Structure formats: structure tokens, C-alpha cells
């Protein structure tokens, strides 16, 4: 089927695939769920386990208590570190309070942390492409604050200063726009021709896959809706990617109730995707809402198939095995719709 044409007056939805939960988010959310099942409430979680309101509210209703810092956790209690990772200083603060920790940091974020440590030990200036204030950036920066400076966007490149232009490397936040990151790298390399790349791509596979899927469907869409929360970096990027790829309009929504009927006026084709921390139930609700407006014809636009899964955090996995519990995880199923 040609994505660029739609039968006149035929309303349809193009549903991006992959979308929604990535392996790191799945691992982190299930870690909190299993901790609640095994230990009972309360289980403390530093920051939001993942950046999604629905997920946080659902876990809070089960007994998870979300805090900003470890000093809000009672001495000796149990705390889960979010998927975004934490700095060595946070680990030290938790140890000082004798907290039982479950580290749900995404393994792909952990990889970036290890890169920062290794390059710092070799005395490189490290240019961390990412957004100031994001938990992931704070965690990575904390691994080597004397060697790292954050580069927020291509426009920041001119203000970067380094000790030795021949000993500079870049790394990145895992949830960025691929295109914008590469533009930042291009500009950095103009200033520092010997700029070194990380040993492997830092932007995670799931972020890239979701952006590729949106790029494919966006040119055929009058409107693209991204389901995701405002503090979800990868969700916000999907809105931008859709516009850059040719969608006439693009909006981010947390849930179906946020769809403005005015957005649908004169629209024939709606694209739908979701950020990497969004459960599929929220996408189902959006499709139901669109169907109520006449957009009942849903076709999946698949650009990749993801089957990666990460094992649970070792602290939790070990405990569950010792107690005879199940450290495995059930698959989180996507919608079954007609692919194109």
C-alpha cells in the first residue's frame, strides 16, 4: 500500500511500529512490580522510575513511594534507582543511610557511564551531548564531572572549550533525536577535527527505531499524535521528528482525553506512535478515541521488530531465586493490527 495516498474521505490511522516500551523501561517497571510483590509496600523509588505519568501513578497506587533524593528514604529501607541511572554520589548517599538498593538503570545507560569513566581515566575532555537537568545526563555527568561538559544542542558548540583539541571525545544521552545529535557532532568536528566517537552508538536502539518508524509514516499524515509525558525526552523528540519528516501537524498527549477535536478537522490520515516509556493500554485508548471520531481503519507501519529483553537487576534477581520466586518477566504484547 502506498503511504502517500489515501482514498478520498477515507479516514485512517497509521500506527507506528515499533512504539512504546523498550527493553530498559520494561525491565525497570517490572523490577518495581516484582519488588512490591515480594517485599510488600512500601518500596521507595528515587525519581520517576520511567518518565510516564500513568506508569508512576499506577505503581504509586500499589505502594511505590517516589522521592527526589535518597535522604527522603528512611534509614535502612529499600530504594529502587530509576531507569535513567544515578551518579556515584547517589550510590554513596544511599550507602551512608544503609539503604537496600535495587539498581534499575537501563543497561544501555550503564554502557554510557562506563564509557565516561574510561575516557576520564585516559584524561580526555568528554563532550556529553544531552539536555541539562535530565536525570540521565546528571547521572552520566556525575561519573566524571572534572572531565565532562554538557552540549545541549548544535548552537552550544561555539561555546565549548577544551584543554587539548586532539584529545576530545563525544558521548550522548540515549534518548536524543538522531538527526540533531549528528548535526551537533558535525559542528563539533568542524571545531575539533580529531574528535573521537564513542566505541558504539550511544543513542539507544529503541529511540532510533521509533524515530525511523515516524519518519516513514509522517509524510502521509495530516496529523501525528505521540503518546508520552512532557518530561519524556524521546517522546518530545518524536513530535519534532514527525514535523521534520513532513507531517502537517504533530502533538504530544499523555492520554486520549487530551486529544483536541479541533486537531481532527479536515484530517484524513492520523499517525500514532508512543514514547519508549508508554504502556500499550494508553495507545489502545487513543485508537478507541480516534475510532469514535471516524478513524476506525488502523494500519500498522512497521520498520523493525524488537525482541531484546534485559534480565532484572541482579539484587532483585538474586533475592527472587533464593526465595523460590520467579525472576522472569512476561511479554508486554503490542496491538495486533494489519501491517503495511
TrEMBL record:
- What enzyme category does the UniProt record give? oxidoreductase
- What residue spans carry the region label Disordered? 319-340
Q: Which cofactor does it need?
A: [4Fe-4S] cluster
Cite the EC number.
Answer: 1.17.7.4
One GO BP on record is: isopentenyl diphosphate biosynthetic process, methylerythritol 4-phosphate pathway
User: What's in the keyword line of the UniProt record?
Assistant: 4Fe-4S, Iron, Iron-sulfur, Isoprene biosynthesis, Metal-binding, Oxidoreductase
Which residues are involved in binding isopentenyl diphosphate? 51, 84, 134, 232-234, 277
| Catalysed conversion reaction | isopentenyl diphosphate + 2 oxidized [2Fe-2S]-[ferredoxin] + H2O = (2E)-4-hydroxy-3-methylbut-2-enyl diphosphate + 2 reduced [2Fe-2S]-[ferredoxin] + 2 H(+); dimethylallyl diphosphate + 2 oxidized [2Fe-2S]-[ferredoxin] + H2O = (2E)-4-hydroxy-3-methylbut-2-enyl diphosphate + 2 reduced [2Fe-2S]-[ferredoxin] + 2 H(+)
Q: Where is the composition biased (Basic and acidic residues)?
A: 331-340
Origin, by domain of life?
Answer: Bacteria
- Residues binding dimethylallyl diphosphate are 51, 84, 134, 232-234, 277
What pathway, per the record?
Isoprenoid biosynthesis; isopentenyl diphosphate biosynthesis via DXP pathway; isopentenyl diphosphate from 1-deoxy-D-xylulose 5-phosphate: step 6/6; Isoprenoid biosynthesis; dimethylallyl diphosphate biosynthesis; dimethylallyl diphosphate from (2E)-4-hydroxy-3-methylbutenyl diphosphate: step 1/1
Q: Where does (2E)-4-hydroxy-3-methylbut-2-enyl diphosphate bind?
A: 51, 84, 134, 174, 232-234, 277
Membrane-crossing residues? none
Q: How, per the record, is the cofactor bound?
A: Binds 1 [4Fe-4S] cluster per subunit.
Active site: residue positions: 136
Molecular-function GO terms, alphabetical: 4 iron, 4 sulfur cluster binding; 4-hydroxy-3-methylbut-2-enyl diphosphate reductase activity; metal ion binding
* Annotated [4Fe-4S] cluster binding sites: 22, 106, 204
Question: NCBIfam families this protein is in?
Answer: ispH_lytB (TIGR00216), PRK01045.1-3 (NF002189), PRK01045.1-4 (NF002190)
State its role: Catalyzes the conversion of 1-hydroxy-2-methyl-2-(E)-butenyl 4-diphosphate (HMBPP) into a mixture of isopentenyl diphosphate (IPP) and dimethylallyl diphosphate (DMAPP). Acts in the terminal step of the DOXP/MEP pathway for isoprenoid precursor biosynthesis.
The family annotation for this protein states:
Belongs to the IspH family.
Among PANTHER family, the record links this protein to: 4-HYDROXY-3-METHYLBUT-2-ENYL DIPHOSPHATE REDUCTASE
- This chain belongs to the protein called 4-hydroxy-3-methylbut-2-enyl diphosphate reductase
- What is the source species? Cellulomonas cellasea DSM 20118
